[in-house]
Amino acid sequence: MNVLIVESRQELGVLWQRHLARQGADVALVHGQDEAVAHLSEYEADIIVMDLVLDEGSALAVADFASYRHPNARVIFVTDTTFFSDGSIFNHASNACAFVTAGTPPEDLAAMVEHYGVS
User: Fold this and answer.
1) Digit-coded pLDDT (tens) for 33-67
2) How far apart are the first and last CA of the chain?
3) At the N or C end, where does the chain have fewer CB atoms within 10 A?
4) Does 83 have pLDDT greater than 70?
5) Strands (E), the chain
């Protein structure tokens, strides 16, 4: 399974990357919109784990590009804010499959990736 993590906080992204790699996923980690779009332009993604609030660029723009470039890829949005806490993220990103807090244990996130990333 090909997983793309889009996370501005290096330490959190690396934590997720290591955990998913131990589960057997092929995981790429990028830190913003430009890197994510460049990665998605060259490589397949089955699932994207993405912070809703990026330091560089827009997570919704990345999700939109992914829906065009990889229509079967699903997005798990992660956040530590209350943006879209009403569930409206699913109205804004057609490829959103989950919306979780940044404090979600890595093993729970890995289980969601495995569940939603199965083609």
Assistant:
1) 999 999 999 999 999 999 999 999 999 999 999 99
2) 9
3) C
4) no
5) 2-6, 26-30, 47-51, 74-79, 96-101
